[in-house]
């Protein structure tokens, strides 16, 4: 890729990321008002995220006593960068993706595996007890979502015999992976909630910790942290669309339109969990993950392997 | 137009993000702030534009309030309100917007936020000096403060200790002072907690933990004997008006039961919020504000929704179990009834007997049982209010209050606060918060009746 190509790729990822974050914040606000029994005014809700962002940006970045200042400053940028890398691996339409690599699914998995570092840094750096507990919690829940996430993504790649995303999408031309591997998408979405520390798996930032890992963060850092968290959610929905819902495949509409519609189809229930499912206790989630979710994900990949072997004959 | 001006204009239409610190006499105001469309109550002072200082404070809580003030990132401001038009007295917030009418809190906070963000008003300066509370003084003669040291309190700063955790691993133990303004906990509650990872290893109560906080900021009450009838009446006037009134004169059953239903629903709203269901909590808070005995169907719907919600059951089942013997040591109240102890002062009142009142009693004693019991009691209270047909109570010196019998020597809140160290040790932090929230402790009630108990011991 030449220099111009790199610039175009970066700009397009930034544009898609900003749009995704904004739409996610808007959907969350509309859902929150509906659940709270308040009048839903979608147009007012359109500007509300911008108002919040402006007010947050105008606040000072505060500090604590003897923080790890460099790590604290780095954490939101790292989370945003990792989410952007994950998103860059997802093709919007045939040939339309920023990171056109042969191992796209590995790139996505690697970026998402490092999210645990960003969240732990965010919790540990302020030198404050409740954020630190938030960081500990994310370490505790890390493997519990990472293993099912990685395993179901590998299972989804098996029918395509490729680790690149585009062949995985085209391998679903006759049958989407959501049907071929019925365990895959539910497990992926549950793992995605853990990855985005959202809704029932918002353990590092729960109300019981008064905000947890971002409790001490303010100003532009807080703004970037919130945007990065939403971007992780968008990346999870977009990758889920590509590997389980046939990506850009669909009749009549252009491929990119299908991709956006299907991403929204996954994004809305992911966002809605925050308003309908209570936060689960860390230990119980970890137990359930190791006793049920991880064995199910292994079952999923074994079944996918057998299917792939049979198809090869 | 500069970028800052543009941002300030854009931000002007948003609710004011406020962190609320709640002192004595503000419990009637604070829970309902979340219904004000002009306010967004946040969990951390770092996320706030405006600090709301509501009620009266004593020396310890005033110092804590000043520390919280300094945590709010500039530009910041303060809106204060206290019962009896005493807002500014004794508070260290010299540039606070002092209100006499609590209904103006929302509009005052928005106005103040807009002035601060646009630069028309200066940010409130730090109150406390920005100095190291325990400055480094090098390695002491006994090696204190040296590399590798764990445990102890060198130069006044507690160091992390080391001990085996429940899995046999050696992990740091950290001593953390919780409260008095940590949002998931009742305002005023202070605990010294030793945590290892997120497991609570030790809990103790600081000496100043039970103090009603009215003596410093409220001069004309400072000479009042703690626990005196005047103090109780003043407390009652702000806190539980119909219930204290029922101690002294007949009160309509409908008034008491409607107040009970509203309180239990408002408590549920906060419990849902802490469990992560903030929007649903707001719906329930709205219901608590508007519910009427003749239109109780939404509470029945809520009860069904709660029973079906597996995630809430998962988060509360088996958490913070109060045993039958612990329940017997309580003076009564919903926490005891959720653990199988059926004492309820209402059973003795002829008006309630005529209505066929039977206390709601559950057996398990965990947080889930307390959630279910309060919702069932809210439903029962609305039914009683509807059927009471003008019945009035018979004063007997005891009334079944919101948290237990009022008029008893020890309040339920006092007994529950005393029980906390025993209850919380060994729990993960999240479970401990769930347990504390489910107990519904009122620190003002605990403080007043703690003073009564202290007076009794002294005499």
Largest sheet of chain B: 5 strands, parallel
Catalogue the unreliable spans of chain B: 212-236, 449-459
What number of domains of chain B?
3
- Rounded to the nearest angstrom, the distance between the terminal CA atoms of chain A is 38 Å
Number of strands of chain B: 11
* Overall outline of chain B: globular
How many DSSP helices of chain A?
A: 12
Report the mean per-residue pLDDT of chain B as an integer: 85
Structural class label of chain A: mainly alpha
> Mind summarizing the main beta sheet of chain A?
none
Give the N-terminus to C-terminus distance of chain B in angstroms. Answer: 70 Å
Number of helices, where a helix is a run of at least 4 consecutive DSSP H or I residues of chain B: 16
Tell me the helix content of chain A.
55-70%
CATH first level of the largest domain in chain B: which class? Mainly Alpha
Give the strand content of chain B: 5-15%
The secondary-structure class of chain B comes to alpha/beta
How would you describe this structure in keywords?
heterodimer, A: 313 residues, mainly alpha, globular, B: 459 residues, alpha/beta, Rossmann fold, Cytochrome-c3 Hydrogenase, chain B, 3 domains, five-stranded parallel beta sheet, four-stranded antiparallel beta sheet, 16 helices, 40% helix, disordered C terminus
Structural commentary:
The complex is a heterodimer of chains A (313) and B (459). Chain A is an all-alpha fold and 313 residues long. Chain A has twelve helices and no strands. By secondary structure, chain B is an alpha/beta fold. Chain B folds into three domains: 3-118, Rossmann fold (3-Layer(aba) Sandwich); 154-209, no CATH class; 240-408, Orthogonal Bundle (Cytochrome-c3 Hydrogenase, chain B). Chain B has 16 helices and eleven strands. Chain B has helices at residues 3-11, 59-71, 105-118, 229-238, 241-248, 253-274, 278-290, 297-308, 310-316, 324-329, 334-337, 350-354, 367-387, 412-424, 429-439, 443-458; strands spanning 16-22, 39-41, 50-54, 77-81, 97-99, 161-164, 170-178, 191-196, 199-204, 399-400, 405-406. In chain B, the strands form three sheets. A five-stranded parallel sheet of chain B has the order 2-1-3-4-5. Chain B has a four-stranded antiparallel sheet with strand order 6-7-8-9. In chain B, strands 10-11 form a two-stranded antiparallel ribbon. In chain B, a hairpin with a 5-residue loop joins β6 (161-164) and β7. The radius of gyration of chain B is 23 Å and the shape is globular. Chains A and B meet through α1, α2, α6, α11 and α12 of A and α1, α6, α7, α9 and α15 of B.
């Amino acid at each position: 890729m030449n220099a111009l190509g790199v610039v175009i790729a970066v700009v397009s990822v930034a544009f898609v990321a900003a749009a995704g974050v904004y739409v996610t914040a808007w959907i969350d606000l509309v859902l929150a008002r509906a659940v709270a029994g308040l009048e839903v005014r979608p147009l007012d809700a359109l500007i509300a995220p911008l108002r919040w962002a402006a007010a947050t940006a105008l606040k000072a970045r505060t500090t604590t006593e003897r923080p790890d200042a460099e790590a604290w400053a780095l954490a939101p940028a790292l989370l945003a960068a990792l989410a952007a890398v994950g998103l860059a691996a997802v093709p919007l339409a045939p040939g339309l993706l920023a990171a056109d690599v042969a191992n796209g699914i590995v790139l996505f998995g690697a970026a998402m595996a490092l999210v645990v570092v960003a969240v732990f840094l965010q919790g540990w750096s302020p030198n404050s007890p409740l954020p630190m507990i938030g960081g500990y919690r994310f370490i505790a829940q890390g493997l519990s979502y990472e293993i099912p996430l990685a395993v179901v993504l590998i299972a989804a790649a098996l029918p395509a015999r490729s680790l690149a995303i585009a062949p995985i999408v085209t391998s679903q031309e006759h049958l989407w992976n959501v049907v071929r591997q019925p365990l895959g998408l539910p497990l992926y979405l549950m793992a995605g909630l853990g990855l985005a520390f959202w809704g029932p798996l918002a353990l590092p930032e729960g109300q019981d910790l008064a905000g947890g890992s971002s409790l001490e963060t303010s100003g532009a850092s807080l703004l970037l942290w919130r945007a990065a968290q939403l971007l992780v959610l968008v990346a999870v929905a977009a990758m889920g669309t590509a590997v389980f819902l046939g990506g850009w495949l669909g009749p009549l509409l252009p491929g990119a339109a299908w991709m956006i519609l299907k991403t929204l189809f996954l994004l809305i229930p992911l966002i809605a969990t925050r308003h309908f499912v209570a936060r689960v206790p860390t230990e119980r989630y970890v137990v359930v993950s190791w006793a049920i979710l991880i064995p199910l994900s292994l079952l999923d990949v074994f079944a996918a392997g057998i299917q792939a072997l049979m198809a090869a004959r | 137009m500069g970028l800052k001006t543009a941002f300030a204009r854009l931000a002007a239409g948003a609710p004011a993000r406020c962190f609320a610190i709640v002192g004595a006499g503000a419990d009637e105001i604070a829970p309902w702030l979340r219904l004000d469309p002009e306010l967004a109550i946040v969990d951390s002072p770092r996320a706030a534009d405006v600090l709301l200082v509501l009620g009266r404070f004593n020396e310890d809580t005033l110092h804590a309030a000043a520390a919280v003030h300094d945590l709010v990132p500039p530009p910041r401001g303060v809106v204060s309100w206290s019962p009896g038009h005493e807002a500014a007295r004794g508070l260290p917030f010299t540039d606070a917007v002092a209100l006499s009418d609590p209904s103006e809190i929302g509009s005052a906070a928005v106005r103040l936020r807009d002035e601060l963000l646009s630069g028309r008003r200066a940010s409130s300066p730090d109150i406390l000096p920005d100095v190291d509370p325990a400055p480094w003084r090098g390695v002491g003669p006994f090696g204190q403060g040296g590399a590798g040291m764990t445990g102890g309190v060198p130069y006044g700063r507690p160091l992390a200790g080391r001990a085996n955790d429940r899995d046999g691993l050696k992990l740091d133990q950290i001593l953390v002072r919780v409260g008095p303004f940590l949002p998931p906990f009742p305002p005023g509650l202070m605990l010294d907690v030793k945590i290892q990872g997120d497991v609570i290893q030790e809990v103790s109560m600081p000496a100043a933990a039970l103090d009603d906080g009215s003596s410093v900021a409220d001069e004309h009450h400072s000479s009042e004997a703690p626990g005196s009838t005047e103090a109780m009446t003043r407390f009652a006037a702000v806190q539980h008006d119909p219930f204290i009134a029922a101690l002294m004169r007949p009160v309509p059953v409908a008034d008491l039961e409607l107040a009970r239903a509203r309180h239990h629903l408002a408590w549920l709203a906060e419990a849902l919020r802490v469990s992560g269901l903030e929007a649903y909590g707001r719906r329930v808070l709205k219901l608590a504000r508007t519910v009427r005995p003749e239109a109780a169907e939404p509470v029945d719907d809520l009860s069904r929704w709660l029973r079906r919600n597996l995630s809430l059951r998962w988060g509360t089942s088996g958490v913070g179990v109060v045993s039958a013997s612990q329940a017997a040591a309580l003076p009564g109240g919903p926490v005891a009834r959720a653990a199988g102890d059926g004492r309820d002062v209402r059973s003795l009142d002829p008006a309630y007997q005529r209505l066929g009142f039977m206390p709601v009693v559950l057996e398990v004693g965990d947080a889930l049982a307390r959630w279910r019991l309060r919702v069932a009691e809210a439903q029962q209270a609305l039914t009683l209010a509807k059927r009471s047909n003008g019945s009035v109570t018979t004063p007997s010196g005891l009334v079944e209050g919101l948290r237990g019998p009022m008029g008893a020597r020890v309040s339920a809140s006092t007994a529950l606060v005393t029980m906390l160290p025993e209850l919380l040790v060994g729990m993960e932090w999240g479970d401990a918060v769930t347990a504390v929230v489910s107990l519904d402790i009122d620190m003002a009630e605990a403080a007043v009746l703690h003073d009564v108990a202290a007076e009794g011991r002294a005499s």
